[in-house]
Amino acid sequence: MPGRRAARTTAFAAVIAATVVSMPTAHAQPADDALKVYTDLTREAEKLSQDHLKAQDELAKANQTAVTATEAEKKALAESEQFRGQVDVLTEATFEGARFNNISALLTSTSQQDFLERMQAMNIIATDQNEAVARLDATLSAATKARSDAAAAASEAEKFAADVSTRKGAMDQQVSTARAKYQSLSAPQKQTLAAPTPKITVNAPAGAAGTALNFALSQQGKPYVFGSNGPNSWDCSSLMQASYRAAGVTIPRVTYDQAKVGRGVSRGEVAAGDLIIYYAGQSHVAMAVDGTRAVHASTEGVPVKIANIDSIGPISVIRRVVG
User: Fold this and answer.
1) What is the pTM of this model?
2) Using alpha carbons only, what angle is made at residue 220 by residues 238 and 292, rounded to the nearest 5 degrees?
3) Is residue 298 within 8 Å of 310, Cβ to Cβ?
4) Using CA atoms, how far apart are residues 39 and 299, in angstroms rounded to an integer?
5) pLDDT at residue 208 above 50?
6) In this structure, what is the dihedral angle of CA atoms 94, 97, 102, 103, given to the nearest 10 degrees?
7) Is 284 within 8 Å of 278 (Cβ atoms)?
8) Which of 27, 105, 193, 283 counts the highest number of beta carbons within 10 A?
9) 3-class DSSP state of 276
């Protein structure tokens, strides 16, 4: 496992190094090129941020699976002890009555009814013992499986923990590069990025989609911060999650999973509250205001604002969360 972790870390470092090395120098770039380089850097940083958040989510799931499996093992072992005691009692009763066979039951019975009752009692003891043994075997098998599941889950959690660390390192490096590039921009360029769009309000539709949209619109002007989860700053997917949470609807934290919620709709069907997932890697998300506009947390240096749906980037999928 250490070798694979090292290889994974080296691979991520190579990707980031390639991104930075291939970047044109600031001195050789016209103003528009500098802004484009910054945009490209932040787009990659956003993807790595989503990767890191996804790995964290997988780690939490793996840890929960390990806890659940461990609890299942404890429960199965407790039940096995219960049935073990029952088997012991029935075994003792069977041993004490081992010589009490059909003939002795017939000879010692005082009547036909007494004989039938004695035989019934013997059969009940034998049946109960068989059932108790079967249940004991089942609980011991369940405990063994739960122990195996817990070990597998713990191993998976260890793998995801390493993945989280690797992805965080890649994200931090890319974010630092993007922030350094931002500092090299001119004051007018920074002002262009930071310029808010006029805040708007709309007659949002009734229901959860409208409530979510109103929440997202209420966040206009707040800053974007990589990996931020609100309430004073956001990244693209945390804003969408919080918006639907305000409407009483739970959606996943990261764009990759938000791209699977609800049902897909076409570009021509887009309506208020729909989630619009961008880029082939599905690393950015916005919420439709109507058929032409969307509200989103764009990137660092840019406040939460309204933009034309098609200007944000190439659309990957559009998802209708409710309805």
Assistant:
1) 0.68
2) 90
3) no
4) 8
5) yes
6) 160
7) yes
8) 283
9) strand
Exposure on the CB side of residue 279, measured as CA atoms within 13 A: 14
Quick one: DSSP state of residue 110? S
DSSP class of residue 282 equals: T
Q: Are 272 and 288 in contact (CB under 8 A)?
A: yes
What is the DSSP annotation of 213-249? HHHHHHTTTPPB-TT-BSSSSB-HHHHHHHHHHHTT-
The rounded mean pLDDT for the chain is: 80
pLDDT digits (tens, 9 = 90+) for 261-289: 999 999 999 999 999 999 999 999 999 99
From the CB of residue 149, how many other CB atoms can be counted at a distance below 10 Å? 17
Sequential DSSP letters for 200-223: ----PPSSHHHHHHHHHHHTTTPP
Q: What's the DSSP call for residue 286?
A: E
User: Which pLDDT score, from 0 to 100, does residue 171 have?
Assistant: 92
Query: 80 — phi, psi (to 5°)?
Result: -65, -35
Nearest to 301 by CA among 17, 101, 51, 45: 45
- For residues 79 and 171, give the distance between their C-alpha atoms in angstroms, rounded to a whole number: 47
| Structure tokens, 45 | 């940083």
Of residues 137 and 103, more confidently modeled: 137
Structure tokens at 87: 């088997």
**Helix residue ranges per DSSP H, 97-111:** 102-108
272 or 192, which is more confident: 272
